Structures
1.
Amino acid sequence: MVRRALAVLAWLVALAWGGHAWFRNASLQEFDEAHAHAWVLVGDSHADDVKWGGRPRFSGPAQDLFSSLKMVESLKSTATDSSKVQGVVLTFWPNKFSPLAERRLSGVAQEDNWGSMAFGRIAPLMTLRDLVRPEVPLRYRMRMAFHTLQFKTTFAWWDEQCEQDHVGESYSHGLSDGMRLHNWWDEARVSPGLFQAIVDEVTSQGWHLVLLENPLHPTYYDQVNAEALAAYETWMASFEAHPSGRVHWVPLGRENDDFTLFRDYHHLTCKGEAFVKEALDKELERICPGAEGTFGRE
């Protein structure tokens, strides 16, 4: 009886892993096709606020840094001599080091639907190596393995939509106590290592990494812990001196005088998206003049 149960279990595990292998190969095809472009966009919902035209975007709402790392690793693993990729644009902001970001990276189940959504996008890219890698806690790795049973595909997508409605002139939004009252920078344990891993993965391939910080509403800067923010900005600026010379920071966070750029304190309207596009296009053209795909269609 025990042998039969073990045999059935082994068969189910093999079947599940075979299904996962199929979806992983389908997902990698999306990354393979991305090599026809000069630039690839990776990030969270802030990437959704970047006018990117006909170029590939691997992003999702509240996408954590390990997920972004896996996107970059998958892009790198599918690179061939014919790849046209010149670089990766990564959307980034202080909350990537927030207490909430750290809780999500701990693997502890969240009260919202974040786990199912986030792991559903990253689990298709999982390899056996991911079960033992040290960048994230064991609980996170086990949840990622469990969510391979969603049998989904990670895909690139192209967003042509934007929103016209903006916040009012007197708009305000209260930040969490963790962001206001605590030095969240000093408390971050997992996020900094993951960010460094992304930098290493991109630059080791000889690609450029553009760190894009979208505008943030003044109500954010009025409340966020000043000590933590200063440490974050100093650290981010230090990557401009990366030995590769291929890391570029585009800090648009404080470009926030016009309230009509915002639909909430960290998401942008059509006007805000156009503002970011202009600044980003100039930076990409500066880095790789005339590179195919530098200027996306509207």
Note: Residues 38-111+155-287 form a domain with the Rossmann fold fold (CATH 3.40.50.1110).
2.
Amino acid sequence: MAIHDYLEPAVTLIVGFIAFWLYQKQKRDSKKDAANILLLEIQNAKRQLAVATKQLKDAGTDETKMLAEDTFLMPNESWSKYKYLFVRDFDRDEWDSLSSFYSRCAIFDDAVIHNNKAFPQNAEQIREAMSQAVTKILTEFTINNPTAKSGSKPEINAINAASKAHDLILAQAGALFSYSPRKPILDAQDQLTSISSINLEQHILKLKKIAHISS
């Protein structure tokens, strides 16, 4: 056989080997990047967990506890996107606990979102109450004093009454603005307790090893 008869199979074999090596390298790099992303998310969630727990603890009784508007445990969630890469790295218990960690962080964040929606609703209630109170007083004045002149004593009294109603509602607005619905707060508190009990030390060690990060 001529040398070119051996050359073509050899080139095909080499090209195939290079393609396979590049595929495996790309796969390892993707898994390494995914491990880094998961580590960042878990570590950030743990930091925010400490902040959120302290906020609720310092808030006092259950009736006065409030959620901070911007305290999210998992603003970005990548476990559902990359978990297929780690099927062989975590046993069943580790897999379930990490999935539970991400799921409970998502529930906590949903509670914060629902709690945040209460603020614009409260503000709208205040605006409506002010408008209705002032309109009612001035309407009653117009009906009862159809011939009152501008600047007359009845008109001044009506304006003063409207002003007092406005100020009274504004004084009570603090309670409305500080009010937070109980259910989102109680849900968030339950999730914080559950998340705190999940041990991810082994997960973190394995992810660091995959990401080539020294402990």
Note: The two ends are 58 Å apart (CA to CA).
3.
Amino acid sequence: MSGKRFAQIVCALALIGPLAACAQNDGSTLPPAGRQSFNLSMTGEDGIQVSWQGHDGALRPGSAETVHLAVVNNTGRAWNGRFCVQLLEPSPSVVAIPLAQEDFRLEPGASFSQDLRVELPADLPPGVHGLALVMHKPVGPIVEVIPVQVGGGESEPFDGDWPTDAALVACPAP
């Protein structure tokens, strides 16, 4: 190979290399196979804004999961609150498995945002469970439940009820 031809190839690779690197996907923006995300935002009539995000598919017993929670106090008064993250079994069960709980105080206009690392029980049976967020607001509690698939198998649409009363008992007001 002549020196001129070699220099042309090296130049071509030098120009194409960065373009190829830009086109590569390192996988950081795509969820792993079987992983689906949820993103739920709520704004109450009282001005409270709550949002949480996480994964709702391919959860494994004994694994750690991270959910993100953001809260804004748009009321005119201080808020002494509590939130809990729980796993619920479908009704008629009244099982509420606590995963995280935290008390907080927010002044008017204040907010917080945090990642919560929760450990799923190692003996959690496979199937559909409810990932519940209980939030004690100044005007009363709310319970939001996201169906999640634990263990193998395909996630099926859930059309049953969740034991939200059990979730409130497991997470009393502060």
Note: Residues 1-33 have pLDDT under 50 and may be disordered.
4.
Amino acid sequence: MNANDYIRKITDGVEVDELAELIEDGKMELRLAELDTHWTEVMRLAERYGFIMQSFGGVSTLATNAEYLKANGPKELARRLRMNNVNL
């Protein structure tokens, strides 16, 4: 089931969120753990292509190289590409 398939509505001023309730009750724990197994794969790809701006403790900030260049200029992009050891 897609996350958007779970009901989320307000009835008589009370919010009902089926997905949040399942998460709170621990009924999604195995599925969330399974999804998290892909983190290493995602981070390897992000590192390979130079998208990592910063990363610590399972939280990362990513940016495309084009956006990073626009925001920071060519010298900073070159520094980041070197830091991530990107194969050009």
Note: The radius of gyration is 19 Å.
